[in-house]
Amino acid sequence: MSEEFKEKGNALFKAQDYAQAAQKYSLAIDALPHPVYYSNRAACYLKLGEYDKAAADCKAGLDHVPEFQKPQPNVPELKPDTPIKLFFRWSQALEDQRNYAAAIYVCNSGLKTYPGNESLTTQLKKLQWVEKKEKRDMKQKAFAPQPQTQAIPTPEASPTTQYIPIQVVDSLPIDLMSIYNTPETTDLLESPKLSTAAPTHHAFPTQLPLMLPACLNAYTLAQLLKSPQNQMKEVRTYLYNYDVAQWPHIFGRGGIDADFIEEMLKAIIENEDNSQRPRDIVQSMKKCERFNIANTFVPKDLKTKVNEICGESL
């Protein structure tokens, strides 16, 4: 009887009627709490966006695995991939709820029982990457300038507020020259002593000059990618002409980063002189660990332009 309900549920699932399919799987579970029925209903709930129910079904299905591991008469066989699907769908439900830490824990739990499973390993790498990216985005957001939410008081609004005019000047006032015209201050400013006859404007540097290393490693590459935007074009040109064979060695087992791929694609667009060099760059990046995962976070329009340039699919 339970198998009949399951088959009807399978037909409805293929027809994309997920709500009705879930009802059929529920009838199958009522007849027999087999893990495969829980797994199938969890798949329906994932499609319906009911992630709490999907996670609960996966946990319930795994709880029932031990009682169906041994063959029983008139009972459907427990296939080896059913528990794996339960772990995988459970992690998917948690991922869709943005609970990446819990999803990673579920994947690791599944890999303890089924070490080396390709589906769980791929899902784990993906989750670790997404969690890392979210933490990085949250950190950037935390340090981003916040919009002014409180009105600045004006003299009209507050009688006690005094308006102080601000004047922009190119040099120090004469009466302050003597204070700053000392060996200590002139050494700090790295310029000759100020002269009252010809006052000099001292400009403090607001940006350090770009330093391009002769040899790259993971640390120096990470620092380059943090360069100010007005220096990034020069950085990209430098990376475009770097020895492409070194990328897999520089990134190592840690894997390539989506930000790096994005900058390299911009470099190809900016510096293309022929199709061979861009093709060599793309092929070298593909050899890096975790390329397929990182590549999913790269804007599609960039990949489309580079595909047109070098004919190498990304």
TrEMBL record:
SUPFAM superfamilies: TPR-like. This is RNA-polymerase II-associated protein 3-like C-terminal domain-containing protein. It holds the Pfam family RPAP3_C. GO terms for molecular function: molecular adaptor activity. One of its GO terms (cellular component) is membrane. Transmembrane segments: none annotated. Residues 216-303 form the RNA-polymerase II-associated protein 3-like C-terminal domain. GO terms for biological process: post-translational protein targeting to endoplasmic reticulum membrane. The lineage of its organism: Eukaryota, Fungi, Dikarya, Ascomycota, Saccharomycotina. It comes from Yarrowia lipolytica. InterPro entries: RPAP3-like_C, SGT, TPR-like_helical_dom_sf, TPR_rpt. SMART domains: TPR (SM00028). The keyword Transport does not apply. Keywords: Repeat, TPR repeat.
